[in-house]
Amino acid sequence: MGSGATAKRRSLELTSKFPGVEHEFIFVAACEQGLELCLKNNISAQAIISIKKGITDYYYGDKLNEMKQSMLTLESNLSASYQKKNLTDYSLGYGKTEALYSRKNKNAPNSVFPIFWWHTNKENETRNTILTRTRP
Q: How far apart, in whole angstroms, are the C-alpha atoms of residue 117 and residue 100?
């Protein structure tokens, strides 16, 4: 789980379709931000691996600002949009999740920094990326 937005939406759908039936989400890996959103919304969720934000949870003060600015500078080399998706919606990862996570031979989560998976550069040329995401 990344930002927790999908889990929140799915929880509302389940509650609507199956009133009175309890449900719980169990993840192999989940960003702390998503787990916190679930907790805040009384959604039962747990994960084997809890993932911290890749910048915010490791730097403080001026260094934090410097590191975030460095990532935003890297992102400025990416195209502003791709397949009708805006980069601004994925800046620092969807929901500003700052995830550093991938699975072998699987689709990269949109909560991962887009510099690792965004398909095109600011000249709209296809990029060779470290991770694969089939859709933004």
A: 12
Contacts 24+ apart (CB under 8 A), 87-92: 87/114, 87/118, 90/114, 90/118, 90/136, 92/55, 92/68
Question: What Å distances lie between residue 80 and 67, 76, 120, 124, CA to CA?
Answer: 21, 8, 9, 9
| Rounded average pLDDT over 14-42 | 97
Contact criterion met (CB below 8 Å) for 29 and 49: yes
Q: Which of 96, 1, 109, 5 is nearest to 53 (CA)?
A: 96
Output the pTM of the full model.
0.91
Instruction: For residue 47, give Cα distances in angstroms to 7, 42, 75, 80, 129.
Output: 13, 16, 29, 33, 28
Contact 95, 111 (CB under 8 A): yes
